[in-house]
Amino acid sequence: MNGSLARLAAAVLCALTTAVAAAEPGSSFHLSHGAGGARLRGQLHLHTTASDGNRDAAEVVRLYREAGYAFVGISDHNRRTPDPLVQGILCIPSSELSDRAADRSPLAGHHLTILGLATDPRDDGWDRDSLEAILRRARAEGALAFANHPRVAHPWPLEDLVGADGLAGLEVFNNREYQLLEDARAGAGMAYFRRQPAWQRALKAGRRLWGTATDDVHDYGDPRQWDRGWVEVHAGERSAEAILAALRSGDFYACRGVDGDAPRLDLAMEAARLAARADRPCRFRLVGPGGLLEELGPAEDASFGLDPEQSFVRVECEDAGDPSRITYSQPLWRGTE
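Structure (tokenized):
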């Protein structure tokens, strides 16, 4: 074979190899987790005496610091509560904002956590007359907006979750909402958050939303009300900028647990399969647009083949000994870089 033919044959072989690799099941899914850096535990939704919580900001932040949290967002209603400057923990300027329809009626409007606020929402420049106005101002400030408690207190219609331009994600676990459901009927909270209907419907409709877990705590005297829902963020450094960047890119897990304990989940793509590892025996569930695709365990690791026909997949990692402790991955979207 002469040199020209040899080069042509090599080029054809390279092209075929690339095509086979591109078509390999699972190779087209993008994993947002584990980009590097420290793993930081944070609380994104809490209240103080500046709104309707029963402890002042300094006391609340100290409680979370002593529980092992690296950062909190103080999300008092429609205001930015000043950082109490507690050493050893980072406060990200935040607020739980409602549109003015929600101010007039407890069953109307939208509630959102806005993380990384540059200004106080009570300033004249803020317009809260609509969801679109809130999201527009949040984007202008470089902040992140997450839909709050989409099930009980202020339900979000699917068209708003899907159509809201600038919404980064939603709460896939809200502990206050969970406790309200459990108090009404034992097991109702567990059943709802296992199904994840709001998140599933939005993801199935093509809306790329990250999922958070939060306390939404108001009463710090009740141990059931706090340290039950949190996020674990991969951040290059302990700064508001690094944490917000990780939340924006989906490099975090949402955790539901007791006293800060939930399975530590790690995901990795290995030879076109999704490998899941935990720090204890767990049940691993792979979920797609139609619901449960596969369940493995109890074990400390699992490996899932990924169907390229699925638009997204996500993983739930449930403690085999205590189903109230569970960690949620973020969605892996097909064809996303």
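The first strand starts at residue 29 and ends at 30. The radius of gyration is 22 Å.
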